[in-house]
Specification:
Radius of gyration: 46 Å
Strand order of the largest sheet: 1-2-3-4-5-6-7-8-9-10-11-12
Order of helices and strands: HHHEEEEEEEEEEEEH
Distance between the termini: 154 Å
Shape: globular
Number of strands: 12
């Protein structure tokens, strides 16, 4: 009789046993579910760094235009006692000395017949020799102050008269003359031509 009662009780306990053992299999692992539904997002710091890097790239600045000497067609007639030859400047920048092609004005430079720069002028008035050595500097009136000597200078007046002060500070006897036409546009170029002739005359053996 006891055995019969046991068989009657077991059917009622079976559902509870199955439930206690995790039966049914419908409840999913919460951690697994959350992981599966998470979307990968790059760190905010990485995105910000990339944007900052792009913004930090600066566009290259356009190069500054090179200085160009003004050119005015003109002629200089030397004094009878001077040793400098007659100078003729043409509109295209070519320069004749004594009637022969000798120099060329190109950009900010005075070139010899081979195209080699003998003197170069910068926008601030600084003048260097072709090899980069200091030569002089123009003042606000386009008078050339020779580098290394406070008394040496080369000027062309509004009347066209060439005035050269040698290193001792006295007027040159070899570089004297007068331009037939002088204006603000071509004065620097004319002074540079006279300057190179003065330099060559000063370095020539006597």
């Amino acid at each position: 009789m006891r055995k019969a009662k046991l068989f009657l009780v077991l059917p009622f306990l079976a559902p509870f046993a199955v439930y206690a053992c995790g039966g049914g299999g419908e409840a999913a692992n919460p951690a697994t579910s959350a992981t599966a539904t998470t979307t990968a997002t790059p760190p905010a710091s990485t995105t910000a760094a990339a944007a900052s890097s792009s913004a930090a790239v600066e566009q290259p600045k356009p190069p500054e235009p090179s200085y160009v000497l003004g050119i005015t067609a003109s002629k200089m007639t030397p004094d009878k006692t001077a040793k400098i030859k007659a100078i003729e400047v043409k509109d295209d920048g070519s320069v004749n000395l004594g009637g022969k092609p000798t120099y060329k004005l190109a950009g900010g430079a005075l070139q010899d017949s081979t195209g080699t720069a003998m003197l170069k002028c910068m926008a601030d008035g600084t003048v260097t020799q072709g090899d980069g050595k200091a030569f002089g500097k123009f003042d606000d009136k386009d008078a050339m102050q020779i580098a290394g000597d406070a008394h040496a200078s080369i000027t062309i007046g509004d009347d066209g008269v060439v005035k050269v002060l040698d290193k001792p500070g006295s007027p040159s006897k070899t570089i004297k003359g007068k331009f037939d036409k002088v204006d603000a546009k071509g004065r620097r170029a004319d002074v540079m031509i006279v300057s190179i002739e003065w330099m060559l005359a000063a370095s020539a053996p006597h």
